[in-house]
């Protein structure tokens, strides 16, 4: 956690009164099994939560559960967590709990996906209010089904821009095929194009600019350009 920065509250998937019971509160049978077997990667989940809880307790800032809530907002900007299904799988529930976010910037709507969970993403899309101007998607290209879930998300949200956030170029994507299947869609990899600046325009909408490639596109404010 950043030092010297006042943080009013921290939103987490579940709040455990006793950090030792975090995995049980999370409800992921697979993680509990692996932790009981002594596997370090599984134990790290509970250890990380305990350290986070201790730091926020010292700072007298609460941990709060993140659900279907408005996270932040000011003039021209809003960020909220989209609804999640109440029934979750018993295995890999930690992945299913990964929150899908919605961001409104100067009249443009963005969906922010953090984890490769098809049912969770579909539920969030169904609970939202229609299509999106853009989707921000993580680089999970090393995981099975990545391109299928990405394609499914794009078909359901019908965005004009997909930003793939990662540190390495995704060689598995056939960009020519993507342009054929999704005409007019820009797929922008941060590893290839650099960081993406989103600048609100006085006329409405935003202008996106990639620092490395200088790719640009305007969304909203009378249509994409």
How would you describe this structure in keywords?
single chain, 225 residues, alpha/beta, Metallo-beta-lactamase, Chain A, 2 domains, seven-stranded mixed beta sheet, three-stranded antiparallel beta sheet, 8 helices, 31% helix, 24% strand, globular
Brief synopsis:
With 225 residues, the chain is an alpha/beta fold. It has 8 helices and 12 strands. It has a 7-stranded mixed β-sheet. A 3-stranded antiparallel β-sheet has the order 10-11-12, with no helix packed on it.
How would you portray this structure in words?
The chain has eight helices and twelve strands. It is an alpha/beta fold. It has a seven-stranded mixed sheet. β7 (134-138), α6 (146-157) and β8 form a beta-alpha-beta unit. The termini are far apart.
Topology:
Layout: E1 10-12, H1 22-26, H2 29-36, H3 40-58, E2 63-65, E3 70-74, E4 77-81, H4 93-96, E5 101-105, E6 108-112, H5 118-127, E7 134-138, H6 146-157, E8 161-165, H7 175-181, E9 186-189, H8 190-193, E10 196-200, E11 206-210, E12 216-219
Parallel strand pairs: 1-2, 6-7, 7-8, 8-9
Antiparallel strand pairs: 3-4, 4-5, 5-6, 10-11, 11-12
